[in-house]
């Protein structure tokens, strides 16, 4: 495939290197001349030392015959405009539109960029967040309210996928006496649980319990996490 | 009219001050409070909001949901083109105008239905008119504007 990479920072540079190693034809556009020169010295004459958000350099890079344009700079607005320019230039010159991929840094921009015509977005921030959440399988348990005099508290647990509670009925969890589960939130739905209610991963469970019972309840709902 | 001006450099401030003097409700947004101090007069009656123009929360705080017009007048073309699209697509602001210095980008995005003001083309047209003042009736600037705006 013929691929244009815009932005030769850590992401764009490594991507170019990997794509070249896989046998693709790649051109990298990097506006910092020193950086562009350094990458040229290492990877050969695959670098255009210019701004990728100016149409003429995208044309010079051969955007009209590119299969894919990857905007990998550190700024969301630059990545949006680079992808849109690639599309607009193809439209103007009546050639097939390349597939556009943008690196997005602000998670909220991801959907918006796709709405504005970017074919695919990659968001390192939310990817790292998802990985961290997976690594630290301890989903939070939140203390909503403590009635200290009565010795009881209201807590919120989010059931992790690895919890032994997943797929089991409320009654089977054998929660300590006096523990009440008044509410489960699943997706947008609210459930008033009965003994036969079956737990699912990612359920948000509201529990009223004796403060002393917290460790036991936590283990039954969340699994044996430290 | 409720107008939101994004970018308080010389360009944006000039627009904001004029609209405010004419009695419009103006909000001006910038990432730096220094820009406000440097470019807005002490008696400016509009509201200033500090923040990034492509951040939706900031735009909401600046009242984009009730704005009748948005002028994206920051220094960076890409910033302006993105804000203009957020204003138009996400918030359905009736009138959106963006500043774009690069003539190529200005032309391509004009084709997308955005009203783009290209200061470099306008400045060159004005210069041309001034140079050729004996031969023409100074029509170049007007023609350039006609080509830029989607009316």
Distance between the termini of chain A: 48 Å
Q: What structural category arises from helix and sheet content of chain A?
A: alpha/beta
Order of helices and strands of chain A: EHEHEHEHEHEHEEEEEH
| CATH class category name of the largest domain in chain A | Alpha Beta
Strand order of the largest sheet of chain B: 3-2-1-4-5-6
C-alpha geometry of chain A: elongated
Topology:
The complex is a heterodimer of chains A (226) and B (151).
Chain A: E1 2-6, H1 10-21, E2 25-29, H2 33-43, E3 47-48, H3 55-60, E4 68-71, H4 76-92, E5 99-103, H5 109-115, E6 120-122, H6 124-135, E7 141-147, E8 152-158, E9 180-186, E10 189-191, E11 204-210, H7 214-222
Parallel strand pairs in A: 1-2, 1-4, 2-3, 4-5, 5-6
Antiparallel strand pairs in A: 7-8, 8-11, 9-10, 9-11
Chain B: E1 2-6, H1 10-21, E2 25-30, H2 33-39, E3 47-50, H3 56-61, E4 69-72, H4 77-90, E5 95-99, H5 103-110, E6 115-117, H6 119-131, H7 140-148
Parallel strand pairs in B: 1-2, 1-4, 2-3, 4-5, 5-6
Helix pairs in contact in B: 6-7
Summarize the structure.
The complex is a heterodimer of chains A (226) and B (151). Chain A is α/β, with parallel strands linked by helices and 226 residues long.
